[in-house]
Amino acid sequence: MARPREFNIDDAIGKATEVFWTKGYQEASLPDLLEGMGLTRGSLYKAFTDKKTLFLLVLEHYEDRAVAAAQARLSDPGVADGRDRILSLFQASVAAATSGDHRGCLLCTAAAGAEMSDPEIAAAVQRGLQGIREGLETALRASPVHGAQEEAAIRALANVLLTQYIGLRVLARSQLSLGIVEHGVAGVARLLEMS
Amino acid sequence: MARPREFNIDDAIGKATEVFWTKGYQEASLPDLLEGMGLTRGSLYKAFTDKKTLFLLVLEHYEDRAVAAAQARLSDPGVADGRDRILSLFQASVAAATSGDHRGCLLCTAAAGAEMSDPEIAAAVQRGLQGIREGLETALRASPVHGAQEEAAIRALANVLLTQYIGLRVLARSQLSLGIVEHGVAGVARLLEMS
DNA sequence: CGTGTATTGTACCAATCAGTTCCGAACTGT
DNA sequence: ACAGTTCGGAACTGATTGGTACAATACACG
To answer: Is the pTM of this model over 0.85?
Structure first.
């Protein structure tokens, strides 16, 4: 017995994700969000309480979509060699950047921003990155070269790869013409050559 | 024949560097800078024109100090093996983070921020990172394992190391408890094991 | 010992920020 | 049709943003 909401919550979160992904948390102003989401202040605050709460939902959404997609890539049974799955992940990131998508990774951008001083945001970012690391570990276990290694060694290499991933996506977002992103896949390939 | 400036320009830039390094470009407000530099609005604008110009001077200052220090480490003739120089660079970064200095790297933080849309700032950040990359290449040429490799291979590995450096310093700043920074040196050591 | 000049500090500016309030409109269940 | 609610939209709040204008101040030079 009430007036129904005229917009779809999930759609709105999806659109908000786009805005935050493009501009970053702090830089995304409320007018930016309102325009991108196609609704007005009243509706936004009624539905999402405030900017930070909306961002937490966006981080969840990003985890469910982008992180899950990365994990799917990293555990794709269609690719037998886990190293190729990892290369495919980096390939996708590099391809996005070279084809004009300079949004980078929402989590990586957030990790470098001041919003990390908020414990709830930090926890959400941590969850997302942790998810990518787990995906990397899964893939490494499916590598003929690394699969047999002990757990600690796999974890160590996954850490290196995750760090590399963050660095690469920061560079992709920066638009710097250092020529690093373009050769990012080859770099990771070298990383995976070692025993 | 006029009233002399009551503060030292270089000192002020040094103090401004501290503020920007700690808070980031956007997040450092004018009051933050005024307090950190110990002067008032009038003096700051008279001496430095505006916030962005001050930041450009700060980037130069950072290049002259922090980047130069990194380069010195990476070409230290007292350390014969270039790999050890590289490890020493990462060691220093990790040590800073584990001992409570979570400022990370001014250039890396800037690279991940929205200020990169300004071409002058982007150019300055590019110069700084380029300097670190050159240092890494210098060190690699002094590595018994890599020194004999062709130029392209050295450049490729330097790119991987720079990306790793950026990722690591972003993580150091983020204060995330992923346990990656602590083992960052070991990760790089693995990276340098390969031929 | 003035006089000119640059620095300093303060008051101010418009713009923008996130967030609140409130009323008219719109829809549901009866 | 009506009562009960909730939504949508605009106007508004107070704080903060970077930047400016100007008057008081303090120094150097003649």
So the answer is: yes
